[in-house]
Specification:
CATH class of the largest domain in chain B: Alpha Beta
Oligomer: heterodimer
Strand order of the largest sheet of chain A: 2-1-3-4
Number of helices of chain B: 12
Shape of chain A: elongated
Distance between the termini of chain B: 44 Å
Order of helices and strands of chain A: HHEHEHEHEHHHHHHHHHHH
Helix content of chain B: 25-40%
CATH topology of the largest domain in chain B: Rossmann fold
Structural class of chain B: alpha/beta
CATH architecture of the largest domain in chain B: 3-Layer(aba) Sandwich
Distance between the termini of chain A: 28 Å
Radius of gyration of chain B: 23 Å
Number of helices of chain A: 16
Largest interface: A-B, 29 and 31 residues
Number of domains of chain B: 2
Number of domains of chain A: 2
Helix content of chain A: 55-70%
Structural class of chain A: alpha/beta
Chain lengths: 380, 337
Amino acid sequence: MRAMLSRLRHMLVKEFIQVLRDKRTRFLLLGPPVIQMVVFGYAATLEIKHVPMAVLDYDQSQASRELVSRFEGSRYFDVRYRLTDRRQVADLIDRGEVTMAVEIDAGFARLLGKGETAHAQVIVDASNSNTALVGLGYLNEVAGSYAREYQLASLSRTAPLAAGGLPTIVLDKRPWYNTDMSSQWFFVPGVIGNLMLVIVMTLTAVSVVREREIGTLEQIMVTPIRRSEFILGKTIPFFLIGGLDATLISAVGTFWFKVPLRGSVWVLALGTVLFLLGALGIGLFISTVSATQQQAMVTSFFFIMPAIIFSGFGSPISSMPTFLQYLTLLNPMRYFQTVLRSVYLKGVGIDVLWPQMAGMAAIGIFMLSVSVLRFHKSLE
Amino acid sequence: MIRDSRDLRKDPRDTRDLRDLRKGPEGAAVVVTGLVKRFGDFAAVDDISLTANKGEIFGFLGPNGAGKSTTIRMLCGLLSPTSGSATVSGIDVATHPEIVRQNIGYMSQKFSLYNDLTVLENLHFFAGMYSVPRSQLPSRISWAVEMAGLNGREKSMAGTLATGWKQRLALGCAVLHRPPVVFLDEPTSGVDPMSRRQFWELIHQMAADGVTVFVTTHYMDEAEYCNRLVLIYRGKIVASGSPLELKEGSMSGELLLVECEKVGQALELLGAAPFIQDAAIFGNALHLVVENAEQAAPGVKTLLAREGIAAGKVERIRPSLEDVFVSLTTPRPGRTP
């Protein structure tokens, strides 16, 4: 027992010296995660603002100009071009200069005046379907509210009494957890998960195979060290580094992006610890089965990509085909994303999150055991 | 140069709990019986049996790919044999690999040190892996530093050391725990001649202190330093014995040195002569195996003269290990190599 602890201690000392001696490596462990957290926190958003747009006004009436000025006044659109010829539209959209072009027909104001339906055409670059959809929604809203005001105004001129009693439905919105419906609040906790996965996986995936490549693994194998001691010696340093990184980038989320941490820090910490176990286990497994560091890196990238996509980080799992939804149950990232967002925004505790915690614990323990069993003290 | 390397066998731990596990003849450090290792269809080691005695420098000689490293790796428990058995210090490698590991030192061809650790950090790490007792640690470490000639460079990164120092540091790391048996796999490959010489002095010192040193090499001159040798070729043992025994006994005839021009042409000519058993080129001369050197010498001169090849010295020499090796591994009709 004492010999075991002593060997483990020597493994840890060696690993920490190797990781922390170099100034550049020390910076690489802590600097980029924080920088990436800041950058991704701003970049990862679904909000559509300042959509570049072109306007083609064939009517040139007061009504059409009023509509255009409403577009300009909205923070969603930037009217970049006022065109005179329909043929200019295609070129601007091809070049990506504008995402939308609104064409107002001649006679727009005349039709409105007569109380008839007036048409305006919207051409939209729908190659990014999300932007197109959201942009069209905003456009509809702006045009709709203008139409209602126009109706009311004309009604109050012709029949002032009827205007007051116009029937309407108003939906009172009560967005829970994220009152402003800020997508940053949604994405920042998610980015914490992504960064943790990338850091821990890339560090551990090369850890064993590096020693195999330089030949020190063979030298270690002839010593009396047990394989569990060796694997623990490889795990604990990256576990601690991962924990430190998690603390740092969560602090950026809380103090820089002001995402409220409504739940318990301890629940978040427990979730992070369990997630790290899974990520470490998978990373170590890759490292024990790889022959070269390059192989290990490529394999871990092949894991990281789907782990993020099938985690609910961007697209909701409920929108995926059923069999893929079942597949996500094997993905520790899926549980961690739920834990992160639930603890941060909903403030829920273990009583709600225990299934996620159990899922991550099971994956972590399974993968670490497999790594220990897979790692033989032989060259075969 | 070397202090504190006595008492190499006096670690109380190995005698106490190992007594029951020991088997095989007293005095034998390594016993290998019918060892076979196949990789697919290829037999890298093909039925090898040998015994290395305590305190012996046991040489394992053969060309690259002969099966030397594979054998040594099986003896250290790094590879499992296809069949056959091996005991080290009387303990079966297959059934008790962990006990064997505590009792051996192993140095692989690559001198596997951590290049990003200092000399001292490497030594402390391996001392920790072998659970060197705290009380012995300072003396063992300073012994290893001195042995490697690294006094004053304890804080240098192992990666910055020249090959000779690296090799001696690797040896130091491998024997910090005073193993009774040490396996060295091509310890001197890529090391300059001066360092090789120093390294062999260390090996002799260890053997004098009672350590069994099992060493592979493909340098024939190094083989001369061994107490006993096994010649291995294509996975099989082709000869064994002391260097002297091998040189005296393994050759069927006497050896004739022929200095001449156009050695290639001369080899062809003499190789075909009926009274010459074997011919091989050594540098710019020929070595011929003949039944009687004195009788054969005039015949050789006549043959060469007839073809217009100017001959210099033609005289009997004592065979070197290289001669023995060439003679044993050259396939000739009527003899299995």
